[in-house]
Write a structure and sequence with these properties.
The protein has about 400 residues and is α+β, with helices and mostly antiparallel strands. The strands form four sheets. Strands 8-9-10-11-12-13 form a six-stranded mixed β-sheet, covered by helices on one side. A three-stranded mixed β-sheet has the order 2-5-6. The chain is built from 17 helices and 13 strands. Helix 10 (about 270-285) crosses helix 17 and helix 14 packs across helix 17. A hairpin with a 5-residue loop joins strand 8 and strand 9. The N and C termini lie far apart (about 60 Å). The protein is about 45% helix and about 20% strand.
Length: about 400
């Protein structure tokens, strides 16, 4: 083996996956610090450590980023069994991983574990900020109940502004292409969800997740709120919090007469599925979405009733219609399935129809070679392949929502 290959192999031993070595915790008491079952890990680290999500310079690296459960006071430390020796490898240095985290998250963490532990008793005095919108309980398998509260918060309160600066740090780990918002823009609205629990006879709180919403202007005298960030932390996922949280946000928005409809900014697949589920449950109770009417085509009545009752925009109302109709299609009836597929593809074909219209206009002003280049990729065969691919992707998404609706 050549010397360069030996060197490369040796240095590869100092590379580790960032997602695997970062330990996140919400700490309620000192026992949680030493309880590995409390660990949850990031989904994304590329915004801190590059597209490969690797950290260089350490063996058996462990990064501990712990937060007190309620107030979210952070503690940050790292350990490793070895660091790369710059003297041996031509001055190569390990990544300054702690500085990267501090700078990107814009936090001031404690570096002393003793100091972090000493601050934990102060959690008993922590109280959530904002207006209480909703509360609910979830029953556990052992018969106990866990209680949760949802708040609408005001960034003008310094207490919440400080708190927001800590809770938003979770975005880097769980939302792709995350960024911090401008808190000085008063068109933002903030919501938090907290667990309320008892410890040593005291009522205490643990952070569960949060959401932000931006109020866009809609001509002439309305607003169009857009849900921007929506996060439930991993320890609380798959327990129904997302639905309760979204419904509380919806309820708060829907009572505002200025609201035209609700949109969502660049949603993840999980949020799309959550939104579809909630909207389908709501629209399933409307007169315009009865089973008999679902047999027909999407109508203005469906659009208007979804908008007036639940502030659902036209695009989402059409999607809800297709999901509910798919739920009522007899999958054993080939003709019903075929008819549904053609109806959805007809909607999906609208961009191609627009292209055809554009073609007639462009033909008058472009040279033949320019027209060919402009309209490349719109042959009938390619169009059919694209439509089929889009349909298969949609039907897969719809089927997941239908399954959840049927099991709810």
């Amino acid at each position: 083996m050549a010397e360069a290959e030996i060197l490369k192999a040796e240095l590869a031993e100092f590379v580790c996956g960032a997602n695997d070595v970062i330990e996140l915790k919400l700490v309620r008491d000192v026992n949680d610090i030493f309880d590995d079952t409390k660990i949850f890990r990031p989904e994304f680290t590329h915004q801190l450590f590059g597209q490969n999500e690797n950290i260089f310079g350490y063996k058996e690296l462990k990064i501990q980023l712990y937060f007190s459960a309620g107030s979210l006071n952070p503690y940050l430390a790292k350990t490793s069994s070895a660091e790369v020796d710059g003297k041996k490898y031509d001055g190569v240095k390990p990544d300054d991983v702690l500085k990267t985290i501090v700078d990107q998250l814009e936090i001031q963490p404690m570096s002393s574990l003793d100091h972090f532990i000493a601050k934990l008793p102060e959690e008993s005095s922590f109280q959530p900020s904002g207006e209480l919108l909703d509360s609910y309980s979830l029953d556990s398998a052992d018969g106990s109940s866990t209680h949760f509260e949802i708040y609408k918060c005001d960034i003008r309160e310094q207490k919440f502004k400080d708190y927001h600066s800590k809770m938003q740090t979770f975005l880097w780990w769980y939302i792709d292409a995350a960024s911090y918002i401008d808190v000085d823009d008063d068109r933002w609205t903030y919501y938090t969800i907290m667990e309320k629990y008892s410890q040593n006879g005291n009522k205490q709180y643990a952070f569960v997740g949060y959401a932000t919403l931006y109020r866009y202007y809609a001509y002439p005298d309305k607003i169009r709120p857009r849900i921007s960030q929506f996060l439930i932390l991993p320890p609380f996922q798959r327990r129904g919090h997302g639905c309760r949280f979204l419904r509380s946000i919806y309820s708060d928005i829907q009572k505002d007469s200025q609201v035209l409809d609700i949109t969502v900014e660049d949603p993840s697949e999980e949020f799309v599925r959550l939104r579809d589920f909630v909207d389908c449950q709501d629209c399933g109770r409307l007169e315009a979405y009865t089973k008999d009417k679902l047999k027909g085509s999407f109508s203005q009545d469906m659009e208007k009733e979804a908008q007036s009752k639940y502030k659902i925009n036209k695009k989402q109302a059409r999607r809800v219609f297709e999901i509910l109709k798919w739920m009522n299609v007899n999958q054993c009836d080939e003709e019903e399935v075929r008819s549904y597929r053609l109806e959805v593809k007809q909607r999906l074909n609208i961009p191609f129809q627009k292209q055809k219209s554009d073609y007639e206009k462009l033909k008058k002003v472009l040279k033949p070679e320019e027209l060919t280049a402009t309209m490349e990729g719109t042959s009938l065969e390619e169009r059919q392949k694209t439509l089929e691919s889009w349909y298969q992707e949609l039907s897969s998404e719809y089927s997941k929502v239908v399954e959840k609706l049927q099991n709810s």
